[in-house]
Amino acid sequence: MTDYDVLRVFCAANGGYGNELGVVRKGSLIPAQDDRQELAAKLGFSETVFVDDPERGAIDIYTPTLRLPFAGHPCVGAAWLLDVPELVTPAGQVGTRLDGEFTWIEARPEWAPPRTLRQYATAAEVDALPVPPPGEWIYAWSWEDEAAGRIRARAFPGRDDGIEEDEATGAAALLLTAELGRALNIIQGTGSQILTAPQPEGWVEIGGRVILER
Questions:
Q1: At residue 1, does pLDDT exceed 70?
Q2: Domains and CATH numbers, the chain
Q3: Main-chain dihedrals φ then ψ at residue 38, nearest 5 degrees
Q4: At 44, phi and psi to the nearest 5?
Q5: 211 Cβ partners below 8 Å, 6+ apart?
Q6: Band (2; pLDDT cuts 50, 70, 90)
Q7: HEC profile for 27-93?
């Protein structure tokens, strides 16, 4: 089996929760996309990152069923692990910075795959939602404290690959931030935390805590 690390990205303040991410540091040893896709499916994480060049920050991202030009929690995790000023993805160059306990990336909303952003009246409604059948990718959210920018969210990928709900999804948070036009403090899944902030010229920063699981 190929060596890989497991990170948890967008952890809570106590270090719990977060979305697991597989990282193959020596991605150059698996150059073929088909082989990468096969390994990502075998590992079963919502996303797996292959590091093609650790010094340049060049990475390649896969779900269990498809290759992604960009994804939020893989980029935050890779930024923390590689500690480089930027990441190189098929979508474009992703700025990165470390700020105390948080790792931040800067990306563009148009890089994110399509998502259905569905607002609910209360956090309790979001908490009570059943997992929908496979189909559209739904980001269900509600305000917990609109004045403070606090949001409750859950993410349902709508894929038939065994991943019914994503614990923390940076790309969906990116789209929601762009739509609302303000900084957000999102609690997603069972307790993961995602911070976001709009930037000049349409960019958005996404930040979170990262822990090396194994």
A1: no
A2: 5-89 (3.10.310.10), 111-211 (3.10.310.10)
A3: -65, -40
A4: 80, 10
A5: 7, 8, 11, 15, 18
A6: confident
A7: HHHCCCHHHHHHHHHHHCCCCEEEEEECCCCEEEEECCCCEECCCHHHHHHHHHHHCCCEEECCCCE
User: Residue 128 in contact with residue 117, Cβ under 8 Å?
Assistant: no
Nearest C-alpha neighbor of 175 from the set 119, 104, 109: 109
The rounded distance, in Å, linking the Cα atoms of 64 and 5 is 17
Cα 146 from Cα 66, distance rounded (Å): 35
Give the pTM: 0.94
Both tokens of 26, joined, read: 């020596």
Residue 195 is encoded by which pair of tokens? Answer: 């911070």
